[in-house]
Design a protein that fits this description.
2 domains, Gln_synth/guanido_kin_cat_dom, 5-stranded mixed sheet, globular, Creatine Kinase, Chain A, domain 2, Ubiquitin-like (UB roll), single chain, 13 helices, 8-stranded mixed sheet, alpha+beta
Length: 448
């Protein structure tokens, strides 16, 4: 707390946003004057916020009261001094401080997404391994809209015209929003977010930001902060930024591609490479674990009903967990690199995924493969969309069932987390099924 207090005073921070991530990735917490924050040394929040759905509803009572204290007690939230970010869009100097959550006995809360990732990282630590990740975040810019029944439209750029057609890797199309992206880069630098390349992706007004590689926990924090930063920068310039997995009909979906590798904690050498630069047995087993277990953990990478609209052939999204060298049709791609940068790119996670849970699931599947010495399939050298092997769940209902029935998920992440997460997703899907879509009105109203 002393280090944190010094930092807050040096930056003349007057307000602190004390935050945790819920299962969806929504930031929840309290806003406190700096002096009160330092006096209280953290905050208390109802543990029940971790069982709240994206619509603000709650899971069924039988699950709610089986996982939480019947008295609906608070969890104890301690600030992480390494997860502090100045907010450049506020009128008064304000910092966002990410907290870790504990029960009254000082044990980590199992439902906390950040604690789930820390649990997975501890498995690697016990083996003397250190994971390295680099997320790539895709998103769309759109016009503002207050009617959810109206399809999203591309925004107006500097030219005064909306973008038309597909402009993959177009510099001029990206430059249409230069003032917005200049603010975004400035704000990210102000917060210490280590972002790298800006790319115009395949979709209309679809962009991608790449993060520099680093520690998985820090990068999960940075992705969460970046999403909020990008939305704030877009709103300042009169448009919206969305990280929905499939926000626009007939346009490509948005992913959170995860590049991951493992180094020896003592030597810093990449354990995915042999001395001659070839794939090590540990790398092969890491890939094998991803193939074997990712279908069971897919709900952590594709958490919403909209997520599954992205998994379509020929739409720059995978439909299975085939792997291949430099093959973008595969769910698991091995990019071209030197031996020290040997890595795997997991292309399954959607941009809508909770960064803590997506990174945790991706690393955990690889870890299980390494400890169980699971052999992968032969690499795919052609079009992976045509393969029938290693298929994924195709609906959120089947993904929920596979996670609930996964012995590996329960072994490593615990029954409380699996039951709570599945219950939240079931509650969200029940809410979704009550809504009548425009497709139903258009094609069924006068036809059936």
């Amino acid at each position: 707390m002393q280090r944190l207090a010094t930092w807050l005073k040096e930056n003349r921070v007057t307000e602190v946003e004390c935050v945790v991530s819920d299962l969806t990735g929504i930031v929840r917490g309290k806003i406190s004057p700096t002096d009160k924050f330092l006096y209280e040394r953290g905050m208390h929040l109802p543990e029940s916020v971790l069982l709240q759905t994206v619509t603000g509803d709650w899971v069924d009572d039988d699950i709610y009261y089986s996982l939480l204290d019947p008295a609906d007690i608070d969890m104890v939230c301690h600030p992480d001094p390494d997860a502090v970010f100045l907010l450049p869009w506020t009128a008064e100097p304000t910092a966002q401080v990410i907290h870790d959550t504990y029960n009254r006995d000082g044990k980590p809360i199992e439902l906390s997404p950040r604690n789930v990732l820390k649990k997975v990282l501890s498995l690697y630590q016990e083996k003397g391994w250190k994971p390295i990740v680099a997320p790539e975040m895709e998103f769309y810019l759109t016009k503002r809209s207050d009617d959810p029944d109206v399809p999203l439209q591309p925004p107006i750029g500097r030219s005064g015209r909306p973008e038309t057609g597909r402009q993959s890797f177009s510099i001029e199309a990206a430059n249409e929003f230069d003032p917005l992206f200049e603010d975004m880069y400035d704000w990210c630098e102000y917060q210490g977010l280590e972002i790298d390349t800006l790319i115009h992706e395949e979709g209309t007004a679809q962009m991608e930001i790449n993060f520099l590689h680093g520690d998985p926990l820090a990068l999960a924090d940075h992705v969460q902060v970046f999403k909020r930063t990008m939305r704030e920068a877009a709103m300042k310039h009169g448009v919206l930024a969305t990280f929905m997995a499939k926000p626009i009909t007939n346009e490509p979906g948005s992913a959170m591609h995860l590049h991951q590798s493992i180094v020896d904690a003592q030597t810093g050498l990449n354990i995915f490479s042999n001395e001659d630069g070839s794939m090590s047995d540990l790398f092969r087993h890491h890939v094998g674990g991803m193939q074997r277990y990712l279908p069971e953990f897919l709900l952590l990478l594709a958490p919403n009903v909209n997520s599954f609209r992205r998994f379509l052939p020929d739409t720059s999204a995978p439909v299975n967990v085939a792997w291949g060298h430099a093959n973008r049709t595969c769910g698991l791609r091995i990019p071209e690199s030197d031996s020290q940068n040997q890595r795997l790119e997991n292309r399954l996670a959607g941009a809508d995924a909770n960064s803590y849970l997506a990174i945790a699931a991706s690393l955990l599947c690889g870890y299980i493969g390494m400890v169980e010495k699971i052999e992968p399939s032969e690499p795919c050298t052609g079009r992976a969309y045509d393969l029938d092997d290693y298929e994924l769940p195709v609906t959120i209902e089947s993904a929920v069932e596979q996670l609930e029935e996964s012995a590996a998920a329960r072994k490593y992440l615990g029954d409380a987390f699996i039951d709570g997460y599945a219950a939240v997703k079931r509650a969200e899907h029940e809410n979704f099924k009550r809504v009548i879509s425009s497709w139903e009105r258009e094609f069924l109203l006068l036809s059936v």
